[in-house]
Structure to design on (253 residues):
């Protein structure tokens, strides 16, 4: 056996050990493509529509999207979609430039029939995003995000640093909040409104993804550049890298 083959075998063994240690680190918990339905394509947490909320087939950034007309519409997903303090939520949003409802909740969850004290992400005023996790406004603060075009959001949370939430918009770090009291999601996750239907969102949401880990800036850039794709698990990424190295060794041999 020549030196190249020895190197490939050694690399395979080392990487294999790393894969065994890391295969359970990341997981896509739920994925709602909204291509004509509210089905969770990964698990069994299908969304439930409220009012006139409905998923189209060609109105999305990728295929279909769920639409909200700004009048008592919503959809909700069971609270078990987020279990623990490490999570990430990815989605695409479109709000028409001539929207008549200026400030609506894109996502929200909370208790007491109000439904936003755990988390809320909203359109705020004429051209802004705002939100918070386990806190009232200002929480994450406010950032200018234009209407009339699709925008990608990745919102991540980690228990590190006393609780840190980061909101990436279109692949760029946009808003950050620290020092929250989040432990886990205790109420249904609402889309296009909050539980008491008092903050109507007018527009479209597409390709909602929920992960059980804190994704990164690189992941935000990947999801923005590859609409409809999901972040590869560490196992998949490592195997691709191993395959590429093995091919290089083989060609050089």
């Amino acid at each position: 056996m020549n030196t190249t083959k020895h190197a490939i075998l050694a690399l395979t063994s080392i990487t294999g050990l790393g894969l065994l240690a890391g295969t359970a680190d990341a997981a896509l918990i739920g994925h709602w493509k909204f291509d004509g339905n509210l089905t969770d394509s990964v698990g069994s947490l299908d969304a439930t529509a409220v009012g006139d909320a409905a998923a189209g087939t060609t109105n999305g950034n990728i295929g279909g999207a769920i639409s909200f007309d700004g009048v008592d519409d919503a959809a909700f997903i069971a609270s078990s979609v987020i279990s623990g303090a490490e999570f990430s939520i990815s989605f695409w949003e479109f709000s028409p430039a001539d929207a008549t409802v200026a400030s609506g909740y894109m996502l929200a969850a909370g208790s007491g029939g109000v439904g936003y004290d755990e988390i809320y992400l909203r359109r705020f005023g004429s051209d802004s995003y705002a939100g918070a996790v386990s806190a009232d406004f200002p929480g994450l603060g406010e950032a200018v995000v234009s209407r009339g075009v699709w925008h990608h959001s990745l919102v991540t949370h980690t228990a590190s640093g006393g609780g840190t939430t980061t909101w990436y918009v279109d692949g760029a770090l946009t808003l950050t909040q620290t020092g929250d009291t989040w432990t886990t999601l205790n109420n249904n996750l609402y889309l296009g409104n909050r539980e008491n239907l008092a903050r109507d969102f007018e527009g479209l949401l597409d390709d909602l993804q929920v992960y059980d880990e804190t994704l990164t800036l690189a992941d935000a850039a990947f999801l923005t550049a590859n609409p409809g794709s999901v972040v590869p698990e560490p196992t998949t990424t490592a195997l691709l890298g191993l395959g590429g190295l093995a091919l290089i060794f083989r060609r050089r041999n």
User: Anything to note?
Assistant: The helical segments are 3-22, 217-225, 234-252. The two ends are 12 Å apart (CA to CA). The first strand starts at residue 28 and ends at 32. DSSP finds three helices and 15 strands in the chain.
